[in-house]
Specification:
The structure is a single chain. The protein has 714 residues and is an alpha/beta fold. The chain folds into 4 domains: 11-49 and 167-233, no CATH class; 54-163, Beta Barrel (OB fold (Dihydrolipoamide Acetyltransferase, E2P)), CATH 2.40.50; 276-462, 3-Layer(aba) Sandwich (Rossmann fold), CATH 3.40.50; 473-629, 3-Layer(aba) Sandwich (Rossmann fold), CATH 3.40.50. The protein is 40% helix and 18% strand. It has 26 helices and 21 strands. Strand 5 (121-131) and strand 6 (134-138) form a beta hairpin. Helix 7 (212-220) packs across helix 9 and helix 9 crosses helix 26 (694-708). 40% of the residues are buried. Mean pLDDT is 84; it is low at 1-6, 649-655 and 710-714. The structure holds adenosine-5'-diphosphate and magnesium ion. Residues 285, 287-288, 291, 314, 316-322, 442, 466, 571, 573, 600 line the site of adenosine-5'-diphosphate (ADP). Magnesium ion binds at residues 320-321, 442, 569.
Length: 714
C-alpha cells in the first residue's frame, strides 16, 4: 500500500504476507503469535530496548547487557573448554581500559583465524556474560575497522546496528533480532504514518500525548535523546500515548453503554422506610458507617427514574447481604418484587436462610426456587410470584428460566457477579420493565481492574468490616508439622467451637475429590474420636447437602469436612478454625474466600494452611501473602501481580478485555485519565446525531464491538 494511494485500505485488512522479508515460514510463525495484519504488527511493540547510542570502553561493559565497543585483537586461537574439554575458538581483545574474551563454540577455524589477525581493530556487539572475574561474549557480531576509518562513522552506516536506541522484539524461533528488526523497521517506516485514530486531538494534547501514528513509530524507534530508564519502565511518552488511545476507546464504549442505560426509563422508588425502620430495630447490631454510606448511594439510585446499575463490592464478611436486604425492602415497600440470584445452590440456600430470618417478621414472604423441587411446589411458587403474593424469590440460574414470571419485578440482586455474564444481567432486566440491578461481589478487585471489568456499573465499596472482628490468625505448616494444626483444632473443639477442614478438587474428577475427603474424614475420626464429623462434597444430593449444612449450623456437627463447595457465602459464626489441606493447590482468591468463612463472630479464629511435598515458587508466594495479610485488597493486588490480569479472574468468565499495549497494573493512572475523558466526552457529545463523532463510534465498534457487547450502541 503506497502512502498516497487514492484508495485507503485499512491497515487491519492488509495481510503480513505482503511485507518484504516475510516468507511463508515466517508468516506461519507470526500468525501463530497472533500477528496477521499490518495493524497487528504495528502494535507488536518491543519488549525491551538496547542502548546503542555510544561506544563503550571495556571497563564500562555491564553484565547481562548487549554492548557495543571498539577493541583490538591481542590473541586468537583454538582452546579447550575448561569443563567438557570441547574445542572452542577464543579471541582476547583489549582497549586502553581492559581486556575481554570472545568465544565461538560453532565455527569455521580457517575463517576465524584469518579474520582475527593480531592487532586488527574491530567493533564488537554482544551480550556480556560473567564467570567469576572473567567477562566474555559468545558469538559476538563483529565489524572490521579498516585502517584510518573512524569507527563511529562506519557504524552509523547501518541504523539497525548502531547510533540509536534499538528495539528488542519478543523473539520468534529461528529468527535473529537483526532480521526481525529489519523487517519491522521497513514496515513501521512505511505504515506507521498511515495509522489514524479518531481520538479527539484536543484530548491527546491536553495530556501532552503524541498523535497515534507518531507514538507507534516512536515506540519502535525511540528518539535518540529518549531516556532509557523511562523506556524500560514503560513510562516513555510514546508508549503512554498508545496506551491512552487504547484505554480511551474502551472507556468510551463503557461510557456509552452507561449512557444508554441512563436514557432508559426506570422505576423511581419512594422511600418511606415502611420496612427498613422495623428491620433496623430487629437487627442485633447497628450498620457500620460504610454500610450506611453504601445504602445511601443505593437509595439515591433507586429513587431516581434512571435504572440502577450498581456494583456493591465488599470483602468477605463485610455485610453486603444486610445492605442488599435493605434495598430489597425499599423495592417491596413500593409494591414491586425482588429477585436474588446466586451462583450456586449452597449460596442461594444461604441467602434464603438470611432473608427468611427477617422477612416473615415484617409480614413478607420469600421463597427459594431450587432446581430439584417437586413440580407441585414449583407450580405453587410460580403462581404466587405471578399473582404478587410472593415478595422475594431467591435462586440460581433457575430464576432466569422462561416460565418464571414476576407480577412486577422492581429489583434484581445478583451475587458474585463474575460467574454471571453480562447476558444474564440482560435476561434479568427483561423479566421486568427496566428493574434496578444491584450486583454484589466479594472479590476485592483492584480499582483499575474493576473500572475495566464493570465500567458500565456505578461502584459502591464497603471498605470496613463490622466491629469486633479479629483478623484470622493464619499459619502455614508443611505436612511434617500437621500435628500443630491438629493441636490447634483440639483446643478450639475443647472451647465448644466448630471447624472446617477443606479439601481441594484433587483432580478434575469429582470421584477422586470425594475419595480424598471421605478418607480424610475417616482419618480425622481416628484423631478426634469424640468429635461429630460431617462430610460435604459436590457429588451429594441437594437434600443431603442441605441436611449436613443444617446440622453444622445448629451445632449438631463439630467438624465439617468439605470440598470447595463451601467456598462462598456459608455463614456459621461459631466456626473458628479452618484447616485447608493441600493449600498450595488453591488460588489466592479462593484461599481468601475460604478463610472468610471463619472469624465471623467476635472470637479469635485460626486458619492453618497445610502444604504437601514440593510446590511451585508461585504457590509459596501465595501462601506467604495469606499468612501476612487478611486485607482483601492487598490480596487481590498480590494476586494480580503474581498471575497477571489475564488470568486474574479467568479471562473467559470475567470478560476482561485483552489489551494490545496497555497493562492494567502499570498504566492505572492513564486508565483513570482516559475514563474521565471518555465519560465527559460521552456526556457532552450527542454522539448519535453528530457526524463528526460518527468516526469515533465506528472506531469504537471496530475495536471493542464484539467483546463488550456494544453492538447495540446507536
Ligand atoms: P458478606 O455477604 O459481605 O460476606 P454478610 O452479609 O454475610 O457478609 O455478613 C457477615 C456477617 O456479619 C453476618 O453474620 C451478618 O449478620 C454480620 N453483620 C453484617 N453487618 C453487621 C454489622 N454492621 N455489625 C455486626 N455484624 C454484622
Ligand atoms: Mg455474602
Amino acid at each position: 500500500m503506497p502512502p498516497n494511494s487514492p484508495v485507503f485500505v485499512p491497515l487491519d485488512q492488509i495481510g503480513l504476507d505482503r511485507t518484504t522479508g516475510v516468507g511463508p515460514k515466517l508468516l506461519a510463525q507470526l500468525n501463530k503469535l497472533g500477528l496477521n495484519t499490518i495493524e497487528d504488527a504495528l502494535y507488536h511493540l518491543p519488549s525491551r530496548y538496547e542502548d546503542r547510542r555510544h561506544l563503550r570502553k571495556i571497563n564500562q561493559l555491564q553484565t547481562g547487557r548487549q554492548e557495543v565497543f571498539c577493541a583490538r585483537v591481542l590473541a586468537a586461537g583454538e582452546a579447550l573448554t575448561s569443563r567438557s574439554r570441547r574445542l572452542l575458538f577464543e579471541v582476547i581483545a583489549e582497549d586502553e581500559t581492559g581486556r575481554i574474551s570472545l568465544k565461538w563454540f560453532h565455527y569455521r577455524k580457517s575463517w576465524l583465524q584469518k579474520r582475527f589477525s593480531i592487532g586488527q581493530q574491530f567493533v564488537f556487539i554482544g551480550e556480556i556474560h560473567s564467570f567469576g572475574a572473567q567477562r566474555e561474549i559468545h558469538h559476538p557480531d563483529t565489524e572490521i575497522i579498516p585502517q584510518g576509518v573512524d569507527p563511529l562513522e562506519l557504524l552509523s552506516k547501518d541504523p539497525l546496528k548502531f547510533g540509536r536506541i534499538l528495539p528488542v522484539y519478543p523473539l520468534t524461533e529461528g529468527l535473529s533480532q537483526y532480521k526481525i528488526r529489519k523487517i519491522w523497521f521497513d514496515l513501521v517506516k512505511k505504515y506507521a504514518p498511515l495509522v489514524r485514530s479518531p481520538l479527539p486531538i484536543a484530548l491527546a494534547q491536553k495530556h501532552g500525548f503524541l498523535p497515534l501514528s507518531e507514538a507507534i513509530f516512536r515506540c519502535h524507534w525511540p528518539e535518540s535523546d529518549q531516556s532509557l530508564s523511562q523506556l524500560e519502565s514503560g513510562q516513555d511518552p510514546a508508549r503512554r500515548s498508545v496506551v491512552y488511545d487504547e484505554f480511551f476507546f474502551l472507556e468510551l464504549g463503557l461510557a456509552l453503554k452507561r449512557h444508554g442505560i441512563e436514557i432508559e426509563q426506570g422505576i423511581a422508588f419512594k422511600v418511606d422506610h415502611l420496612y427498613t425502620k422495623p428491620l433496623s430495630a430487629l437487627l442485633p447490631f447497628r450498620l457500620t458507617v460504610a454500610q450506611r454510606r453504601v445504602l445511601g448511594e443505593i437509595k439515591r439510585d433507586m429513587m431516581s427514574n434512571v435504572p440502577m446499575h450498581r456494583l456493591l463490592q465488599g470483602d468477605v464478611g463485610s455485610g453486603k447481604t444486610i445492605v442488599a436486604l435493605m434495598a430489597a425492602l425499599i423495592a417491596i415497600e413500593n409494591e414491586t418484587q425482588v429477585a436474588v440470584l446466586a451462583p450456586t445452590e449452597i449460596l442461594a440456600e444461604q441467602h434464603f436462610s438470611t432473608f427468611s430470618q427477617w422477612l416473615p417478621h415484617l409480614g413478607l414472604r420469600c421463597e427459594l426456587l431450587r432446581s430439584g423441587i417437586p413440580q407441585s411446589e414449583r407450580k405453587r411458587i410460580l403462581a404466587d410470584l405471578e399473582s404478587g403474593d410472593l415478595h422475594l424469590l431467591v435462586g440460581t440460574h433457575a430464576v432466569l428460566q422462561e416460565g418464571v414470571q414476576f407480577k412486577r419485578l422492581g429489583l434484581g440482586i445478583v451475587d458474585e457477579q463474575h460467574r454471571f455474564g453480562v447476558k444474564q444481567r440482560g435476561v434479568l432486566k427483561q423479566k421486568g420493565e427496566n428493574p434496578d440491578i444491584l450486583v454484589m461481589t466479594a472479590t476485592p478487585i483492584p480499582r483499575t481492574l474493576s473500572m475495566t471489568l464493570y465500567g458500565d456499573l456505578a461502584l459502591s465499596v464497603i471498605d470496613e468490616l463490622p466491629p469486633g472482628r479479629i483478623p484470622v490468625k493464619t499459619h502455614h505448616y508443611p505436612e511434617g508439622r500437621r500435628n500443630l494444626a491438629y493441636e490447634g483444632l483440639r483446643r478450639q473443639l475443647a472451647l465448644g467451637r466448630q471447624a472446617y477442614i477443606v479439601y481441594p478438587l484433587v483432580e478434575e474428577t469429582e470421584n477422586s475429590d470425594l475419595l480424598a475427603a471421605t478418607e480424610a474424614s475417616v482419618q480425622l475420626a481416628a484423631h478426634f474420636p469424640d468429635a461429630r464429623i460431617g462430610l460435604l462434597h459436590g457429588r451429594m444430593k441437594q437434600a443431603d447437602k442441605d441436611l449436613v449444612m443444617q446440622e453444622f449450623r445448629s451445632h449438631q456437627l463439630d467438624i465439617l469436612v468439605a470440598t470447595t463447595v463451601i467456598e462462598v457465602g456459608v455463614d456459621v459464626a461459631n466456626a473458628t478454625i479452618m484447616i485447608i489441606e493441600h493449600a498450595d493447590r488453591f488460588g489466592l482468591a479462593q484461599l481468601h474466600q475460604l478463610r472468610g468463612r471463619v472469624g465471623r463472630g467476635g472470637d479469635e479464629s485460626f486458619c492453618f494452611l497445610l502444604s504437601s511435598g514440593h510446590y511451585s515458587e508461585e504457590a509459596r508466594q501465595r501462601l506467604d501473602v495469606m499468612v501476612e495479610t487478611s486485607d482483601g485488597f492487598r490480596i487481590a493486588e498480590a494476586d494480580l501481580e503474581i498471575r497477571g490480569p489475564g488470568e486474574f479472574l479467568g479471562t473467559r468468565q470475567s470478560g476482561l478485555p485483552d489489551f494490545r499495549v496497555a497493562s492494567i497494573l502499570r498504566d492505572g493512572d492513564i486508565l483513570e485519565m482516559a475514563r474521565q475523558d471518555a465519560f465527559e466526552f460521552a456526556q457532552t457529545t450527542n454522539y448519535l446525531a453528530d457526524a463528526a463523532t460518527n468516526e469515533v463510534k465506528q472506531e469504537l465498534l471496530r475495536r471493542w464491538g464484539g467483546r463488550l457487547d456494544l453492538i447495540t450502541i446507536g
